[in-house]
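During the no-cost extension, the postdoctoral fellow (Dr. R.K.) reprocessed legacy sequence entries with the updated structure-token encoder. One reprocessed record is reproduced below for audit purposes.
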Amino acid sequence: MATLKPIAFLLLALLLVAPFSGIGAYPLHLVVMALLWGYIYTSWSIMGRLGMVSFGHGAFLGVGAYASVLLWNAAGLSPWIGGAVAVVVTVGLAVLIGWPCFRFRIVGHYFALVTLALSEVVRLVIVAMRDLTGGSLGITPKSALTDGATASLGALQFSSKVVWFYVVLACWLGALWVWRRVDRSMDRLALEAISEEEDAAASVGIDVSRTKLKVTVLSAAMTCIGGVLYAQYQLYVNPETVSGIGISLQMVFGSIAGGMYVMLGPTVGAVFLLALSETLRVAIGNQVHGLDLLIYGALLVLFIVYLPKGILGTLLERVGRRG
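Re-encoded structure tokens follow.
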């Protein structure tokens, strides 16, 4: 693994200068989206890799995206404030769902079903509140870039993709830092023990419910911030792109495909899914509705069966064997 560190630093250095390499606006957009989804998948994996597979993170992403946009459009509150409000709401949702589940030992596929219901409930609420949210048609944040302005820090709007590249890059690096801190913490060891045998872990003094809830709240809050970033970068959100079963499944599949037990695995999964979606868009366009979800589901099964450690996890394992 030590031999891979120079490679990682070299790749990071190349990434830092990527906007000035003349790659073009659309390729830079794809890089930004890969980093953004890499951040979101990493946020999910902080929880998912420790034995708590959630299908409800689409709810947290949706709360972040819609709360910031609605508060900006309706009350003129900066997305910085709207994002803070969204994080508070998300933490409340995470506690509301997580605490009863952990307290009454709802684990495994039962926990996955509870979180799946949360994700769909949030999507249905967004659709039902169509007078505020635009329903299934979505909503666009009001532009703050008037009179020739190219940037508004208060509104978190930038016309330059280069600025967005560095904003998202900073958030992505922050997510990797959080991953590393969690990986080196006692909570990781405690959660690994809990995932193996909950009663035995509790018998040695581990507060099972509190430990699970801490990581759940952290993962949910980070995902919520990802929703805020997505809404402000894309300047358009709708229920299908930021909430519901489809987005939750996408997070799970992307993390598993890349390797959710490896720090850069979710980012590799984001790049893989982005390449897959672009290939499908070019090959068949939007002619077959729901085809992407069908392919995600089929590939998820294949990855679980044949590549349980994901693309990067399997690659690192083979490199380690050769070494």
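The first strand starts at residue 151 and ends at 152. The CA atoms of residues 49 and 239 lie 27 Å apart. The remaining legacy entries will be reprocessed before the final report is submitted.
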